Amino acid sequence: VTDPAQRIADPGIEQAALITELRIRMPEVADLIYHVPNGGHRLKKVAADLKNQGVVPGIPDLVLTMARGGYFGLYIEFKATPPYDAAISASQHERIRKLNEQGYLAVVCRGHFDAMEQIRAYLRLAPTVVAA
Prior knowledge:
By secondary structure, this protein is α+β, with helices and mostly antiparallel strands. Helices cover 45% and strands 14% of the residues. Helix 5 (90-101) links the parallel strand 3 (74-79) and strand 4. Helix 2 (11-25) crosses helix 6.
């Protein structure tokens, strides 16, 4: 990307900034969050191989494996900050709905700061207690 405004609004750059901030400010969260490399352009053979290995369209970008507020974990579909954000695809809507139905909190965030606020709000919830 040659336009500096586009570089700033690139969701990959914004998401990397979020992960960097988590590593610095909340290392215990950084240790339990991971990125699902589901997107991007790939050769058809690579895409087919990944699909055969279980890649599913629409899975959110980030997964926080900390249970809070009665939820089993937090999924974040990460979009760039407006006005450079992309639309939510039909497969993303479907996966977010299904994850919420299964007891996860799945949300869409527009940029680094929105995602950080969502994570902070989620962490303020009481830990989920699993009864044996």
